Amino acid sequence: MGPSPTRTSDLLVNLRSVARWSVCWVAAAVQMSVLPNVLVADDFGDQLKSVCRVVGTQLPLRVVAQRVRETHGVNIWLDRRVDPTTIVSLSAAAGSLEATLQAIGTKSDLEIGFCDPIVIVAPRGKAIDAATRILALRARLRSASGAASTRLLEDHDLAWDRLTTPAEIAQQIGQLWQTSVAAESLPHDLWDRKHLNSIDVVDALVLLAAGFDLSPSYDPQQSLFRFHPIEESVAAALDYPAAKVSATMVRELRKIDPNVKLARKGGLVRVTGNAAVHHRIRHRDGAGAAKPNGGLAGIDPRMRRFTLRIPGMKPAASILQAVCNASGLALETSDASPDALQTPVGLEVEDQLVTEIIESICVQAGLAVRFDSTTAVVSDRQ
To answer: Which domain of life is it from (predicted)?
Structure first.
């Protein structure tokens, strides 16, 4: 989606494991697993707090974005200046979806911006700005009266095919929300396919323009959106119950955005600041520990249970490593012969302990295994 940066990061992000998963392993160079809906989430904030259910190794960033949308219902937008082939590895051992996304940003020198229902991944200084522009323009439309504003803020799915131009997407947006979009200022580019769930016209137009350092403005008299160059930063002014903006919260907000402004209005506090400020107020606990799943996060990895169905036959080493990654066990194979580790094995188990699964794999490959509290030690059978 546009020019790619020259730097590609190899990331390792740890995610909190859960006690019982149903995992479908596929035969491919990239191993990808999607954990089941162990946590029912009703909104954007709950999804960000939930345990990330996408795991795998050597995954292009674009694949991670797609899987997060499919699994969590959260749109991940990769700015056109981000290399979508950046390699990401997600193990099954630790945090919330929000913490995982922030870790990806940190390790790859990218910025993450949050604006319900979208997570924006962009170069530093760009993602939070784009999210703030969404909040600010959305607030202006909400403050306007009339059927037009209501229509523009209705949610629709937006999708386009590979090699679609920004101008064609702008035309599609205009048709979907029954408005006019002046697209002549959008540069020519060819974009990859994309699907965005339940977004409004502001989401669509800000994301369309941000990668070109453009921002949309709305003329209600003509029901027309135009794009103009971004020349200065923007802040969004939103009201919150005073109880949500405590003294402790204010100190946190000033660390996030030193320019944040607060004004008391009766029982409300008007907060003017960037999207990171508003995200912190709305989802204060989202970036911390993952929302617990029945208190099982700290369980002994040897006591975790899995349902696994592996189609066909795969090398024992790859299946052993995948199961150990998922359970949180380390794998030690220095005393196992390479030939035995490459023995093709099959597996279909229902609700079995991870130790039993590993033993079954080893039996098929003619290997032995012993366990300590953190490691599966595999060796040749004597």
So the answer is: Bacteria
User: Average pLDDT, stretch 303-312?
Assistant: 71
Q: How confident is the model over 325-354, as a mean pLDDT? A: 83
For residue 377 the two structure tokens come to: 């030690």
Alpha helices in 211-337 (DSSP H): 247-256, 275-282, 316-327
Which range (223-227, 252-256, 293-297) has the least confidence? Answer: 293-297
Adjacency order of strands within the sheet including 330-335: 330-335, 375-380, 367-371
DSSP H or E stretch at residue 354? helix 354-365
> How many CA atoms are closer than 13 Å to the CA of 58, on its beta-carbon side?
5
Q: Which two structure tokens, joined as six digits, stand for 262? A: 């607060």
Q: If DSSP codes are grouped into helix, strand and coil, which group holds residue 115?
A: strand
What are the backbone angles phi and psi of residue 250, rounded to the nearest 5°?
A: -60, -40
Q: For tokens 């506090």, name the residue.
A: 269
Residue 21: in which H helix or E strand, if any?
strand 20-24
98-155: pLDDT as tens digits? 988 998 888 889 999 999 999 999 999 999 999 999 999 999 998 887 889 899 999 9
Domains of the chain: 10-229 (no CATH), 236-273 (no CATH), 301-380 (3.55.50.30)
b/e sequence 296-332, b meaning 16+ C-beta within 10 Å? ebebebbebbbbbebeeebebbbbbbbbbbbbbbebb
Q: Is 62 helix (H, G, I), strand (E, B) or coil?
A: helix
